Amino acid sequence: MRPIFFAKRPIKKLIIHQDIQGRNTMETKHLIESLLFVSGKPVSIVKLTELLGCTREQTVQAADDLMREYADGKRGVQIQKTATSYQMATSPDASGTIQNFVKAEQTGELTKPSLETLTIIAYRGPITKAELEQIRGVNCSLILRNLLIKGLIETRDDRGKMAAVYTVTFEFLRFLGLHRVEELPDYAKLNQDENLKKLLERKIEDQPHPGASGPVSA
Fold it and tell me: What is the CATH number of the domain that holds 207?
């Protein structure tokens, strides 16, 4: 059975609405927990209510219950709430360890899979995670997280594709001494999926490594 978070948004919404009849508060909390985990950013109460197919009051009650459970359990992850949204975040007690971890991630050099992913985003962006994984043939979640931490890529919502898309950052261009992605070698020729496959067959090790040294990691 395919995990719910791999489904496209229209399908996911349909699945959630199908089980609204007879759902109890516990099931609603589990769905909210899954949505907040997958999102990785604040999710509005309006959006949660829409996805769950319940009232705003039911959404807030279930989300508040979930937030209290996380707080009472003294876990490494907590639920944060603003006037309009909820978000998963790490516990303040773990801040020191997390800072050390993030620092190590920022200063480490890029691996070959990371360079391949960064190359695809540079030549094909804006690109969705699904499109990226179709080209590479593997899950790219951890690689994307590392590239975001290093400041080499950024993400934004694309209403047309109904998904987040990834592009390279100004820091990436500055490291390579470029003003825009169109200045990359053979950009016009390699801006298509079929040509990207040829690009990935080359020895990626010969390409620049925008990692710890240079302005990217500053």
Answer: 1.10.10.10
The tokens describing 77, both together, are 């992850």
Please report the pLDDT score of residue 45 as a whole number. 94
Domain hosting residue 38, numbered range: 4-90
Q: How far is CA 157 from CA 41, 49, 204, in A?
A: 12, 20, 29
pLDDT tens by residue, 157-186: 888 878 889 999 888 888 787 878 888 888
**Biggest CA pair distance of the chain:** 59
d(CA 176, CA 171): 9
Per-position DSSP letters for 47-84, written without gaps between them: HHHHHHTS-HHHHHHHHHHHHHHHHHTT-SEEEEE-SS
Statement: the pTM of the whole predicted model exceeds 0.85: no
State whether 120 and 198 are in the same domain. Answer: yes
Dihedral angle at the C-alpha atoms of 113, 114, 120, 121, nearest 10 degrees? Answer: 160
Count how many domains the chain has.
2
Cα separation, 7 vs 11, in Å, equals 6
